[in-house]
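Lecture 7 notes: from sequence to structure.
We start with the chain below.
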Amino acid sequence: MLDMEYIDDEVKNRIEQLRGQLSVYSEWYYSKNESLISDVEFDRLLKELEELEAQYPQFRKENSPTAVVGSSLKETKFRKVRHKKPMLSLSNSYNIGDVAGFAERIYKALDYRYRDLPFILELKLDGASISLQYEEGKLIRGVTRGDGIEGEDVTENIYTISGIPKVLPASLTLEVRGEIVLPKSKFARLNEKRLAEGEEIFANPRNAASGTLRQLDSSVVAGRGLDAYFYFLVDAESYDIHTHSASIAYLEKLGFQTTGIFEKISSLEEMEKRIAFWEAEREKLDYETDGMVIKLDDMDLWEEVGYTTKSPRWAIAYKFPAKQVTTTLRGVTWQVGRTGKLTPVAELEETELSGSRIKRASLHNLDEIRRKDIRIGDRVFIEKAAEIIPQVVAPVKELRNGSEKEIPEPAVCPSCGGPLEREEGLIDLKCVNPLCPAVIQGTFEYFVSRDGMNISGLGSKIVEKFLKLGYIKDVADIYHLKEHRAEMAELDKMGEKSVENLLISIEESKKRPYAKTLYALGIPNVGKFLGNLLAKKSKNIDALARMSVEELLSIGDVGDKIANAVYDFFRSEKNLALIQKLKEAGVNFAYEENEEAAEGEKDAQNPFRGKTFLFTGKLSRFKREDIRDIVEALGGENLSGVSKKLDYLIVGADAGSKLEKARALGTVTIMTEEQFLALCGDRIKF
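Predicted structure tokens for the same chain:
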């Protein structure tokens, strides 16, 4: 008996804890337009609460987050309006098995009288829900979702949104529901403007749309460019409409904007294919969508299928893998790269992001850590930069409890224990020991990378092993590894086949273009873009080595720092000796005119073709040289300054005079990194 009481107390405490957390998160999300946790984590906590309440019904409450939709509206500044019919939320699913279970529950509710009923698959927009009421064809009221029973009267703000019909083509009294969104293109411009004016930027288009809709000054709303899409006609049967697909066609006929994406589907296999299709295609859309909505098309069956306290049973939301998630920052590891630069890496409580298990993420540098005020122990938002590299976006300061600790600046190199220096005017710390094991290891990894000599089979673990065994001391020794063929074949996890493949890859690397070889040498400040440029201008390594600083400066996009770095590199006896060894090994150091055919030439509809680009400010998603490479790969041209020849200026944080000059010209298209990504589309994989 005592054990049961103990268990009941534990369960009751956990239920109350979950209710408290979820209520706070909902209030911030709906009333303050801020997310304290990711949608995925919120759904996970909500599901845990649902399961506990189902297992222990004695602890269930009517005002539980499992039974309440949206916000309590405790802090609203607008007049409350009661919905004629509740604005319910949707149950969420994250895999096709959940969708199959949803369909099976519908068939069971209908006593299996039907099989293969048609469903409608539509986009789930990530914005702010709205209900519009019309009387005799005129818009009289716009109401937010609120708690599903009552919402906020935002009619004055709704009238400023051009995409919403103010008068219908027929004298009808009706109610329609949809989503207010801020297009991604306008979101980027809004954040650019707020950044320039020193205001805090919005975290995402959803928060921006919701926050804008609840502005007390309607002129602010009018200036932000909100849009609206509609997906539901209340009491459709009153207009002799009996399917969801027919109701959408009716809304379009009345002039309501829809996404146009409403697909009728009868099989689970087809459903799975179309969900996968839209998950890939969604990045091309100018509005955020976080999933798909699946609805039973036959409205006459909706009442029979029924409702829960907060959701219809005839509809479900399929959520795409999250772009952002929240987790806990457990600690920070400092990595040392081939140049000696220290980079902080976040050690995270493991979580899932975009289909990957994530334990580590980039923190960029100490300056960024201080700017964002990130601390060990924080709950943090993470996302994948350009869908590849996990990075810490921001801490959730509202969830701090006082135990969080500031991230200290390292005093010595974490690899060799040597001294650290910071170059004048720069924020990065560097290890200055040329014999630092991490620097040596990084040099080899850089040389054999895909963008360099592209030697497969020489991963970091193998390089580390070969260094310890003395097979390699500098990168030129890679071309003499065949002398250790027998010993390598005996090593753990190698074998004859692996060694054969490695030696073939090493031989193939000798044919790599001259520009790639320059990149692989690791000349300071020379990445892929400048490697291509220097290769084209110099034609061969000997000519490049003879160039003076003045000659290097005459090459477009080569400034003082780069010119001096290149000049100094070729004045080092050590570097010249290494190049000689590579030459003797047969590595290519001569430029061929056709070696860098731009991919953009293959695409007749390429928006980069014949266009000029320039980048200014602090870029968060790319290194400057990488983004230049993308432009050239797609057939565009990089400029070094703002002029009448410039087509696009891509702007990062703290943009200065170049941005002002571009605005003054009036002919330059100003873009954010997100807009640049949208322009790239699927022409290049990041």
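Points to note: The chain has five domains: 2-59, 80-319, 325-429, 437-585, 599-680. The CA atoms of residues 149 and 561 lie 64 Å apart.
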